[in-house]
Design brief:
48% of the residues lie in helices and 15% in strands. It is an alpha+beta fold and 401 residues long. The protein has three domains: 7-124, Acyl-CoA dehydrogenase/oxidase, N-terminal domain (Butyryl-Coa Dehydrogenase, subunit A, domain 1, Orthogonal Bundle); 128-239, Beta Barrel (Butyryl-CoA Dehydrogenase, subunit A, domain 2); 243-395, Butyryl-CoA Dehydrogenase, subunit A, domain 3, CATH 1.20.140. A four-stranded mixed β-sheet has the order 1-4-5-8. Strands 2-3-7-6 form a four-stranded antiparallel β-sheet, with no helix packed on it. The longest helix has 37 residues, at 241-277.
Amino acid sequence: MNFTIPGEIEAHRQRLRDFIDGEVMPLEADRTAYDEHENIAHGPLADMRAKAKSLGLWSPQAPVARGGMGLSMTARAVLYEEANRSIFGPVCINAAAPDDGNISVMAQIGTPEQQDWWMQPIIEGAVRSAFAMTEPAPGGGSDPSMIRTTATRTDSGYVLHGRKWYITGAAEAKHFIVVAKTSDDPRSGLTAFLFHADQPGWRIVRRIGIMGPEEHGGHCELDFDGLEIPAENVLIGEGRGLKLTQTRLGPARLTHCMRWLGLARRCVEIARAYAEEREGFGIRLIDRESIQMMLGGLAADIETGRLLTMKAAWEIDRGGFARREVSMAKIHVANLLHKAADTAIQINGARGYSKDTPLEWIYRYARQARLVDGADEVHKMVLNRELAGAGDGFFAWPVDD
């Protein structure tokens, strides 16, 4: 087993670290750099994106021929973790959800024409995108087979009716992927479509307020009332929407884990720095055994998350689906992020609860991690199903031929 990374990736990582530490992190302390939804404002974001491009740190997931870095999943794991040591980091290098996952899946399954008009502007940073699958009850959530939004065939394409909600980035997105029902077949009844925000027949019902800071474009409820989509904007064919969701969501869950590991590391960095300088009752916090146990435990948990994440990335890079590996990583890292933020706030005391550090931001953001792209309980059910089917083979080591 080889746990090293190529020298080229390490050079990218170091350059990215310098960019995050020197350019992006200072913006966290400047309240004018935030928008009204507690994310980086568009002006500072444009500046950071221009600098990232000049440093060759732009769109790690996108093909080189289209202006990206063309990195493997294992290489992305290294860079995404480093980027999200800042709460603003991923979006500055065009590696934030949902654009990150949309670029990745379109690079895999989009036709050249679809990639030209739909994907290329996202890679260039000219537009933002969204992935519309989740619906209000009784529609589809973690179970895509329950989707109720319909796409009815016409002479020239399809007409959509239905409702979606908690669609990340929708308020600022121009390019959308939407998943709708085209038949009652349980395996081939879903189809994925591309559309542009300027097309008539749909609207944003509301931007849903959430507990934590929001991604650009928020989390919105959408209504489809006659949206017409031409046949050429179907992704990978009618009835293959479930395949599309599987292709997109597995790697997207994993890139969430990569980014969350960066936030967890940042929590430890802030906690350690404060514990080293703060004294009470004649002793520094860092010299107290209780604090050492907190930080040491987090260090072990972060490394466990990195290994789970990297194994899943390795499995994807070698052509596997990595279902169980992604689910394991998703469960562990989502819970780790919440624990890291909570522990860092406890060590920092009132300072951690205030807005003097990004810890309270991370804490509010972290609670969604156990819900997005499948709740903990769903992933545990997936693992149990895999265990039941594979038996002892569940724990088998991959073997070289």
